[in-house]
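Can't attach files on this board, so I'm pasting raw text. These are the components:
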Amino acid sequence: MSQGRVSGSCLCGAVEFHVELPTLFCGHCHCSMCRRNHGAAYVTWFGVLYEQFEIDQGIDVLVRHASSEHGSRRFCGKCGSSLFCESTQHPEHIDIVLANMDGPIDKAPQFHGYWESRADWAQVGDELPRLRADAADD
Ligand SMILES: [Zn+2]
Ligand SMILES: [Zn+2]
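---
Top answer:
Structure tokens for the assembled complex are below.
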């Protein structure tokens, strides 16, 4: 198992957090909510247990948006960076946007989730499994 701490932050730096490795998974999400939320064709998430996650700064500027009946997303209220996704369907772990991390985590992306919802204007050329849905999104 990989050990170590990786820090992350939003675009403006108001929110800082860190995770303790190992992570649970890492994967790309092609759902329509991620697409709109990030203004991107798809978003790469990883998951860690809550006990391996801590917000170091900026909890007061975090804004929560309830994106579904069971899920919510948190973003920086100052700069808009999308940071976390949480769900009552996976109460043991939090989903974190890989792009906001300051360094590498312990695994590369493993799959494409919500493949059926993907944008048809972006091409994906890797050989990762294409899944209809996954734990990386809500
Ligand atoms: Zn910010
Ligand atoms: Zn998604």
